[in-house]
Design a protein that fits this description.
single chain; 302 residues; TIM Barrel; two-stranded parallel sheet
């Protein structure tokens, strides 16, 4: 059987602009459950300095990310998008759920893509991992993003407590229905200070990493032109019980081989990178490593 050529690898700078969040998601390190996390909110000046660093490295795409921060106005978020877009950088973002008119303002400001994962297609599990939230509300926000003519990035989390093969298959089908331009899929890595970190019925971390690589293969076959996150932890490290990191070279290489093609370099100010605790030990490779992998994976079929 002829093997389909793999899409060339691409990259973006990830810029965390804050880690405040008013949600109580049981799996996320930035949730209200994590009382020990030092909170931050970057000023516009510091964001401008980070954007300048991105430009100097000739990186042409930035992914702005924060918690769902009730202390930062949508006007300020719009200004941040405008600041990035006016420099000629393609702007992607993930700030949480908003009414449709907010996404339309983001679009006018220059936003081209927005990440809003549905996390799980199972309504009962969704309510368990996101107390006080409903899946239908998340899907409505996703539709509002598409209506605003912004590219939608969405997908699930592999290894959530209560997830099984049937749910993973349903998650995959829901992902396909939305035809996202990017699937930001990652395994769940327990974050100390969150309820799910102590849950007994979630898959072992090594199993979550293995299942994520398997899911990347499925998604690449079904979505041949879609971006898929390539920053993944090492399966070997997981099996040996060593600390996991999204900066692991073996993990990235395995993900690229499985069909992933979207790499990230962390442009968050160094003093705050450890506080952007979406997952435990959220480290990303330096730009030299990312550029090297891009050079190795620029030719289809490489």
């Amino acid at each position: 059987m002829k093997q389909e050529p793999r899409p060339p690898a691409q990259a973006a700078a990830l810029l965390g602009i804050g880690n405040n969040c008013h949600n109580s998601c049981t799996y996320c390190g930035m949730s209200t459950w994590n009382k020990n996390l030092p909170r931050f909110r970057l000023s516009l000046k510091k964001i401008q300095i980070s954007l300048q660093s991105i430009q100097e490295l000739s990186i042409n795409r930035v992914f702005l990310i924060s918690g769902e921060d009730g202390g930062r106005s949508t006007r300020e978020l719009t200004m941040i998008i405008e600041e990035a877009a006016k420099s000629g950088i393609e702007v992607l973002a993930a700030f949480g759920e908003f009414p449709g008119e907010v996404y339309r303002e983001f679009k006018k400001a220059g936003l081209t893509g927005y990440a809003l994962k549905f996390e799980t297609s199972n309504e009962k599990l969704y309510r368990e991992i996101k107390p006080g939230k409903e899946l239908k509300t998340r899907l409505k926000a996703m539709e509002a993003i598409r209506t605003a003519e912004i590219g939608l990035a969405t997908g699930s989390i592999i290894g959530l407590a209560g997830q099984n093969e049937t749910i993973r298959e349903q998650d995959r089908m829901l992902t396909l229905q939305w035809d996202p331009f990017w699937v930001p899929i990652v395994p769940y890595l327990p974050v100390p200070g969150t309820p799910m970190a102590s849950t007994d019925n979630r898959p072992e971390t090594a199993e979550a990493v293995r299942l994520t690589l398997e899911e990347i293969r499925h998604l690449r076959r079904l979505l041949p032109h879609t971006l898929i996150t390539a920053n993944q932890p090492s399966l070997t490290a997981a099996e040996e019980g060593r600390p996991l990191s999204f900066a692991d070279l073996e993990g990235r290489q395995a993900a690229l081989k499985a069909g992933a093609n979207f790499l990230f370099w962390d442009a968050t100010p160094a003093a705050r990178r450890g506080d952007l605790q979406i997952t435990e030990n959220r480290k990303l490779p330096d730009w030299q490593e990312v550029r090297s992998l891009l050079n190795e994976n620029t030719v289809s079929g490489a």
